[in-house]
Specification:
There is one protein chain. This protein is of the alpha+beta class. Helix content is 36%, strand content 21%. It is flat, with a radius of gyration of 15 Å. The N and C termini lie far apart (33 Å). Strands 1-3-2 form a three-stranded mixed sheet, with no helix packed on it. The chain contains one helix and three strands. Strand 2 and strand 3 form a beta hairpin. The longest helix is centred in the N-terminal third of the chain and has 28 residues.
């Protein structure tokens, strides 16, 4: 699986491009993991991951997604 990379730069435009490239790569990895779990019949009802820039929580197709911000805690029950 090829997910790409971003070069290090100090200009604001290049930093934005790096963040966008890293977000796309992260999304590909998450999609790959989810597809693998479904293909191999692993039950998934909660999904936790850190993005460190924002918080987001929602339920989609019976899976509770929890994107955690920096220093955010969620209790698993």
């Amino acid at each position: 699986m090829k997910i790409g990379y971003a070069r290090v730069s100090t200009t604001a435009q290049n930093l934005d491009m790096q963040i966008e490239a890293l977000n796309k790569a992260e999304r590909k990895v998450m999609d790959y993991i989810q597809a693998y779990l479904y293909a191999h019949s692993h039950p998934v009802n909660q999904w936790f991951y850190g993005h460190f820039h924002q918080s987001w929580h929602d339920e989609i197709d019976g899976i509770k997604y929890n994107m955690l911000d920096c220093l955010e805690l969620r209790e698993l029950r």
